[in-house]
Amino acid sequence: MSDAPAPEPAIIARGLTMRGPWGPVYGPVDLEVAAGGVTVLVCPAGSGRTALSMTLAGRMRPRSGTLSVFGRTRVQDIFAAAALAGIDELDTVAESVTVRDLITEQLRWDARWYKLIRRADEADLARVCGPVFGELPLPPLSEYVEELTELDGLLLRIALANTNRPPLLVVGNLEQVTSDHNRDLLVGRLVDLGRDQTVLTASVNGVTGHPVRQVPVANVSRAELAGQQKGGS
């Protein structure tokens, strides 16, 4: 039996809360996410879950509580250590653009300001999308986003967000892929990415058939928050 200490969790959240103009959004939330692999937050869909995902990726500042992501506690440092994809409020793309357009834009965004970046070609498609799509067929460069399947559309958004391969990858939620078969393929791809990153996503009903960790999270739905207020009044 090994006496080596357990590795420090990738994410430690204590008492996180968020409020908006109309009242509580989520919290208090206590959470630990182990480093590496895929962790699925099992909780109701809605604005609370979305805001929590954005907070854990350093895109929102909580009202109260503490958050550490790979030892980083400042929002800007957490932001730099995390990629976020599949959040409609942040990375929705116009349907009338092509895969080539999106990859070209991302390559230009990632490049030094003085570098001239040509339009994306097949090699760029493979470099950006290959690690995320794995053995699945890559979308054609000429394909319009509106013509992509739900699975391909989300995998493309993940690929664009993940070009720099930060330690943490947060994917909004699994239910945006409505086909059971395609959702199973999506989880399989996230498991593969979890070999080199810590992957965090969310689901209403959880995941079966894959080696993922599942963490129930409370206090992210309107009903839960309303119950708190009623109980405290």
From TrEMBL:
- What is the source species? Mycolicibacterium psychrotolerans
This chain belongs to the protein called ABC transporter ATP-binding protein
